[in-house]
């Protein structure tokens, strides 16, 4: 398969994490999206590579894209700090555990949409929630979850943000 798709929500309040991601080969549609994300920056949407520490990028190479406009230095630091650290660690742990096959880590790329609420305060919660959401969304993507049957079985559940 050339594209795996994952999604996960973790936590609550202003530090809630919602991850949407694509995993695929460098020479497929996800590779094209990866390149576009890095080369087409815009004000308030500074996409970045996920790194474990400076000069130690994760494999598969992962670009983090903002799902909301970054509106100030505090929110930018949260994206480049705890959110980036969480996403990078979740990717590395997914390779270590075999969820992402290590022998495919050079051939795959990840495009990871990250939500940072403009009123988020607690960096530890930002880290914890984004780590869990990224880990879960990678597992869902790589295991084809939810299945069509699981989706149908849960279609009447209340979405937490539907407003009623």
How is this structure best described in words?
With 164 residues, this protein is of the alpha+beta class. The chain is 38% helix and 23% strand. The protein contains 4 helices and 7 strands. It has helices spanning 29-39, 73-96, 123-143, 148-153; strands at residues 3-10, 17-25, 48-49, 51-53, 56-57, 61-66, 108-114. The chain has a 5-stranded mixed sheet, with helices on both faces. The protein starts with a strand and ends in an 11-residue tail after the last helix.
Q: What are the main properties of this structure?
A:
164 residues, alpha+beta, Ribosomal Protein S5, domain 2, five-stranded mixed beta sheet, two-stranded antiparallel ribbon, 4 helices
Write a brief caption for the model.
The chain has one domain: Formaldehyde-activating enzyme (Ribosomal Protein S5, domain 2, 2-Layer Sandwich), CATH 3.30.230. It is 38% helix and 23% strand.
* CATH top level class name: Alpha Beta
Taking all Cα atoms into account, the compactness measure Rg is: 15 Å
CATH superfamily: Formaldehyde-activating enzyme
Give the tally of β-strands.
7
* Beta-strand share of residues: 15-25%
Give the helices and strands, then pairings.
Layout: E1 3-10, E2 17-25, H1 29-39, E3 48-49, E4 51-53, E5 56-57, E6 61-66, H2 73-96, E7 108-114, H3 123-143, H4 148-153
Parallel strand pairs: 6-7
Antiparallel strand pairs: 1-2, 2-7, 3-6, 4-5
């Amino acid at each position: 398969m050339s594209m795996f798709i994952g999604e996960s929500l973790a936590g609550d309040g202003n530090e809630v994490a919602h991850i949407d991601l694509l995993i695929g080969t460098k020479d497929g549609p996800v590779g094209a999206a990866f390149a576009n994300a890095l080369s087409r920056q815009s004000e308030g949407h500074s996409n970045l590579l996920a790194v474990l520490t400076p000069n130690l990028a994760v494999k598969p190479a992962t670009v983090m894209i903002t799902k909301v406009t970054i509106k100030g230095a505090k929110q930018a630091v949260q994206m480049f700090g705890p959110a980036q650290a969480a996403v990078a660690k979740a990717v590395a742990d997914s390779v270590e555990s075999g969820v992402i096959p290590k022998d495919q880590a050079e051939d795959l790329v990840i495009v990871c949409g990250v939500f940072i609420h403009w009123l988020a305060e607690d960096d530890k919660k930002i880290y914890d929630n984004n780590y869990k959401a990224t880990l879960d969304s990678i597992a869902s993507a790589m295991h084809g979850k939810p299945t069509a049957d699981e989706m149908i079985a849960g279609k009447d559940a209340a979405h937490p943000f539907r407003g009623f």
